[in-house]
């Protein structure tokens, strides 16, 4: 396809503008994490300063910060894994056996704002003596992750031709065998998309962890607020901690990006 | 996999077993008369200081203190959820008497401490200042013990005042405005004055202006923000920022933003809480640390009437099963001895005996101590409307400040606020 020079210039400018808008806050965050508190507010010398890793040293020297990273990772991993184990077969049956009403019920869970569930959850889980443990965090994150996974995978399974499974059954596989040996391997892009989005959600979730975790199971987004005090804010430390939180998830997202894109569109066009 | 149902049941069982296995808080749930006191504290210098002393308390009493520490808004959110659910997980709570106290007490979430505070003569409840004490008392019931107090003072730049030919900070609000305008004129690019400008954040710092003009937010349950005194105060606060403040000033500044302008050396005067002074005098945070001076809040037509409030207090959760031990912790943390140590570390106490002890302020700048004492004389015990829905009330009474800064008619805006606030009070 040939494009006019005007269109090419427009395209480059549009992309540049978008990149600047999207990356500016991240760039500013990383830049600020290398400054002390006086330099951060000195706009005139935004780029003219001696970078220092002091803030990172402070963040990582707080021994519990490593624990928070582990907490976040463990909760995100477990809630995603369990949601996949439960959600993928559910999505498959909803897609293949046309269970639209069940699908709607699952969707309801996405419609209810999470904040309205906090008080009842807290009440139930504290009576079960679960508050403060990992299980309650994993369960609460699954509440969001599961519908997400079910919906992405439903769309994906809808797009996979049923003929493949029928062919497999003709060749002697049971329906479940066909699901496990034929459908699942074909669904890897969808699985990857669902898993990554669910992982990112859990990693970033602040509200559930704020109320349901305790000092030992605090996750990173809650821990970041340790840098904001009543009469003093350690901006440098805050920015360094934010960078530490953002970096792993950015790496995962970059690495898995091609799966996400193909997974999101895969269900869109029925094959 | 011949039995799909069996497989599903097995999966569900495995999952629930797993979840049960990682619910790792065995034993600590039972708190009736437990040796573990669960204390929730805000991120604050007070917290950092008391934490260092807690091992000593644990050794003396044989109790264990378990601390959860959060930012002020997160703390507030957590209390609202947990107390609403009737939680037993909280014993001692650090809370803001003026922001949340009335709501918590009205809902019956705070334990009655009246007998406890009066039972120990050595600990001496009468040693606490009246203003802060009234803020932690709800309908004649004591629900909290004030731990930190604050007042509004004037922060100023000694070098800029000198350059413009002034040898002393202003005594009155009118002088403040005159000096701020002159300094702005003498130093292009530098503001004469800065303060909070965001609608809700500014309310507390505006309150001293309001009191010094002889006004208040409400008088005997009637809204009073439309009174002549209030209009004059709104006009003074907003015109200081509009005329002597930074160019193109944002109307979204809380203390970190206005303090940042002062720290960068871009303003000559700042009216703020004295508890924030380290932000201005610490060279790690402030470019002008060398040149910062402090003065009492300037006088208005009704004299010098700064707020003098307990910003934080300790209370006990009504649902706690461990109230006796929780009180032991509060009694210890608010004792004369701890209050002195805490004040030396930069936490202004609510105890008169501590303020009278010269040792308590030896680490603070001398002019700051004088400024705080000056602002405390005739101090008013609140800095925002005393209602249960504080956030909403602050939005209403803060609107004329923003309108004034953006050049709208202050009197008209105050009148609108008056009506809205009266309606609000009627619905309380």
Explained architecture:
The complex is a heterodimer of chains A (271) and B (428). In chain A, helix 4 runs parallel beside helix 7, helix 4 crosses helix 10 and helix 8 (162-170) crosses helix 9. Chain A has helices at 5-33, 37-40, 54-61, 63-96, 100-111, 118-127, 134-159, 162-170, 175-186, 188-204, 207-212, 220-223, 235-266. The two termini of chain A are 26 Å apart. Helix content of chain A is 75%, strand content 0%. With 271 residues, chain A is mainly alpha-helical. The model of chain A is unreliable at 267-271 (pLDDT under 50). Chain B is globular. Chain B is an alpha/beta fold and 428 residues long. The relative contact order of chain B is 0.17. Chain B folds into two domains: 36-143 and 309-376, Periplasmic binding protein-like II (D-Maltodextrin-Binding Protein, domain 2, 3-Layer(aba) Sandwich); 151-307 and 385-427, Periplasmic binding protein-like II (D-Maltodextrin-Binding Protein, domain 2). The interface between A and B is large, with 43 and 54 residues. Chain A: The chain crosses the membrane at residues 12-31, 68-92, 104-124, 136-157, 178-203, 235-256.
């Amino acid at each position: 396809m040939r494009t006019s020079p005007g269109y090419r210039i427009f395209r480059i400018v549009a992309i540049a503008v978008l990149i600047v808008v999207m990356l500016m806050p991240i760039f500013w965050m990383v830049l600020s994490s290398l400054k002390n508190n006086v330099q951060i507010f000195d706009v005139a010398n935004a780029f003219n300063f001696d970078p220092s890793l002091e803030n990172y040293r402070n963040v990582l020297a707080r021994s519990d910060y490593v624990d928070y990273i582990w907490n976040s990772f463990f909760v995100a991993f477990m809630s995603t894994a369990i949601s996949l184990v439960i959600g993928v077969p559910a999505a498959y049956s909803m897609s293949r056996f046309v269970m639209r009403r069940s699908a709607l019920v699952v969707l309801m869970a996405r419609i209810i704002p999470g904040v309205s569930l906090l008080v009842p959850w807290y009440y139930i889980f504290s009576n079960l003596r679960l508050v403060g443990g990992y299980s309650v965090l994993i369960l609460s994150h699954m509440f969001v992750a599961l519908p997400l996974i079910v919906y992405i995978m439903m769309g994906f399974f809808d797009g996979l031709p049923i003929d493949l499974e029928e062919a497999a059954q003709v060749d002697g596989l049971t329906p479940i065998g066909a699901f496990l040996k034929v459908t699942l391997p074909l669904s890897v892009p969808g699985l990857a998309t669902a898993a990554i989005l669910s992982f990112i959600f859990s990693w970033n979730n602040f509200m559930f962890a704020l109320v349901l975790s305790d000092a030992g199971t605090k996750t990173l987004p809650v821990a970041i607020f340790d840098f904001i005090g009543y009469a003093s804010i350690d901006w440098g430390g805050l920015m360094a901690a934010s960078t530490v939180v953002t970096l792993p998830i950015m790496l995962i997202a970059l690495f898995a990006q091609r799966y996400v894109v193909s997974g999101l569109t895969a269900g869109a066009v029925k094959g | 996999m011949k039995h799909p149902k069996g497989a599903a049941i097995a999966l569900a069982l495995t999952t629930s077993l797993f979840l049960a296995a990682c619910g790792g808080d065995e034993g600590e749930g039972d708190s009736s008369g437990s040796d573990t006191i669960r204390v929730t504290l805000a991120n604050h210098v007070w917290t950092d200081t008391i934490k260092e002393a807690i091992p000593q308390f644990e050794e003396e009493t044989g109790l264990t203190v378990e601390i959860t520490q959060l930012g002020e808004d997160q703390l507030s959110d957590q209390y609202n959820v947990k107390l609403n659910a009737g939680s037993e997980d909280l014993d001692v709570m650090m809370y803001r008497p003026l922001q949340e106290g009335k709501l918590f007490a009205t809902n019956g979430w705070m334990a009655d401490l009246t007998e406890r505070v009066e039972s120990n003569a050595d600990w001496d409840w009468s040693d606490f200042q009246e203003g802060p004490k009234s803020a932690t008392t709800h309908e004649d019931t004591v629900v909290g013990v004030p731990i930190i107090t604050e007042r509004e003072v004037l922060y100023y730049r000694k070098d800029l005042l000198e350059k413009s030919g002034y040898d002393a900070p202003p005594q009155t609000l009118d002088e403040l405005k005159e000096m701020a305008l002159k300094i702005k004129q003498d130093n292009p690019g530098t503001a004469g004055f800065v303060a909070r400008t965001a609608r809700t954040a500014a309310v507390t710092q505006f309150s001293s202006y309001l009191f010094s003009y002889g006004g208040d937010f409400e008088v005997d349950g009637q809204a009073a923000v439309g009174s002549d005194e209030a209009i004059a105060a709104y006009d003074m606060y907003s015109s200081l920022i509009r005329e002597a403040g930074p160019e193109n000033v944002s109307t979204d500044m809380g203390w970190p933003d206005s303090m940042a302008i002062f720290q960068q050396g871009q303003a000559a005067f700042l009216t703020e809480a004295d508890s924030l002074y380290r932000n201005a005098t610490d060279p790690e945070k402030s470019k002008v640390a060398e040149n910062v001076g402090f003065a009492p809040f300037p006088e208005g037509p009704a004299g010098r009437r700064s707020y003098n409030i307990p910003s934080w207090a300790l209370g006990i959760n009504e649902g706690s099963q461990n109230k006796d031990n929780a009180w032991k912790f509060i009694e210890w943390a608010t004792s004369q001895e701890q209050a002195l140590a805490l004040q030396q570390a930069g936490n202004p106490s609510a105890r008169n005996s501590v303020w009278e002890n010269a040792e308590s302020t030896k680490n603070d700048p001398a002019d700051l101590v004088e400024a705080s004492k000056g602002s405390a004389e005739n101090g008013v015990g609140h800095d925002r409307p005393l209602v249960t829905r504080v956030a909403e009330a602050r939005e209403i009474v803060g609107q004329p400040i923003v309108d004034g800064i953006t050049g709208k008619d202050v009197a008209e805006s105050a009148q609108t606020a008056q009506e809205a606030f009266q309606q609000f009070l009627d619905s309380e």
